[in-house]
Amino acid sequence: xxxxxxxxxxxxxxxxxxxxxxxxxxxxxxxxxxxxxxxxxxxxxxxxxxxxxxxxxxxxxxxxxxxxxxxxxxxxxxxxxxxxxxxxxxxxxxxxxxxxxxxxxxxxxxxxxxxxx
Length: 117
Description:
The chain contains no helices and 11 strands. By secondary structure, it is mainly β. The strands form 2 sheets. Strands 2, 4, 5, 6, 9, 10 and 11 form a 7-stranded mixed β-sheet that branches. Strand 7 and strand 8 (about 80-85) form a beta hairpin.
């Protein structure tokens, strides 16, 4: 199995920035996808950003609501980082890290991001 450790959530003012990190451990393979989804109260879970590593055909994907503000990056097969800039109150949600490989999917416990004055 794969375990995901999330960090970086917290409270930030509108227009501010936060960086979320997720470290994977366990049965990690060279080619995998990692990233973030988020869920606000009463809303369905939605894509924030994902990134594939270890494959020339891989790439990044962003949700429409975060394009131009968030940047996802992969340092290695075990780590994903999300740089969040120009944060808005509507970005408030629980952010969940995801790891996908070999037809399997694993989720982190979630980290709270609150954007408020």
